[in-house]
Amino acid sequence: MKSIKETYFYNEVIKELNYPFGNIFIFQGFVVSEINRGVIFNWEDHGKIITEDIACFLGTNGGDLIYISNRIHPYSVFVTDWFKFFNNSYSLKSYFIVSQNAIGIVNSLIENLFFSTKIKRFRNIEMAVNYIKTGLVEIA
Asked: Which residues pair with 22 in a beta bridge?
């Protein structure tokens, strides 16, 4: 799988946020995350920090953003922590997961049980970004 840095979309990044646990790339209307191998992603240690930094930079609660989880490395997600995201008055316009392996697909099905809208899955980052750019998902 390819990092967003290896695509022609990388030159459209408005802001890059680098953390010890992964990287976040902010674009106009969407955000791409690439979490490091082996991380056990949870609200307190990861999600809250990312969410607050993006909200501060863009001045939004996320309701106008599409979040793309580009799963180039295997890691775990505390799926019940989505409740903490929503309980803190954050939202998303849409949530995409980019993954090629069977475990990633199964994990996204489990995450969908805790997410307020349907999660869209893609096999590569170019397909996910092009889905947005071709107008299949409106961006603000």
From this structure: 19, 35
